Structure formats: structure tokens, C-alpha cells
Amino acid sequence: MASGYGLSGGPSRCFPFWQELLACYVVNTNTDDVSGAKKCVPALEDYYECLHHRKERARAIELQRAYRRAEAAHPRENAPRPGAIRNLGLLDREEDTKDVLGTNRSITAGDRK
């Protein structure tokens, strides 16, 4: 969040990156000369990555692409889906639940403990 506070009241996840960027600008620039801001490009990239996760998303997409190519070249039985790479297997687990329970019912909120 722009205030520096996260949803739970503590500092936001990107606030340390913002502080690092701000410190870089304070040290390397002044009101007359802003050419030192070029030294802050790595800190700016880190802050933008924290906000938008573009590099992380691109890497996950490339991993999925490579997984699909390898799977097409050498298919195997009972392989995980390519979507499991992105969600680390924590979401869309209904099929696994059905396999474990051996029934067609899904887990409801009352079944979880």
C-alpha cells in the first residue's frame, strides 16, 4: 500500500524495497544534479518486481512451457498437470481428494479440521 502499511497493520511486503530505493536517491542525487539516479536502477527494478512480480511470472510461464515440451516428448503415466508448477500443488486438489477418499464427494468446510 502507498502508506507503507500492509493489510494487517504492519509494514507492507514491498516497503523495505521502497526504503532502499529512497535511500539510494537521497545519497546519489540532489536538487541541482539528478544524474546519480542512474545508480538506483537495480533498486528500482527490485521494487517494481516486488510490486508486480513480472520476472517471477515470466519464469513460471517458461517453466510450464519447458515442462509441456518435455511431457510431449516423453509422456508418463499419472504425471502432475502443468498448472501444478504455478500453484505448487496447493490449489485445485479436488482430484487428489477423490483419489484418497475413493468416492466422488469433495471436501466441504465442515469436513476439514
What does this structure look like?
With 113 residues, the chain is mostly helical. It contains five helices and no strands. Helix 1 runs antiparallel to helix 2. The mean pLDDT is 78.
Strand count: 0
Distance between the termini: 33 Å
Q: What percent of the residues sit in helical stretches (DSSP H or I)? A: 40-55%
Query: Looking at the structure, what is the overall shape?
Result: elongated
The overall pLDDT, averaged over residues, is 78
Structural class by sheet pairing and helices: mainly alpha
Instruction: Give the count of helical stretches.
Output: 5
Return the string of H and E elements: HHHHH
Low-confidence region ranges: none
What's the alpha carbon Rg, rounded to whole Å? 23 Å
Largest sheet: none
**Into which percentage range does the β-strand content fall?**
under 5%
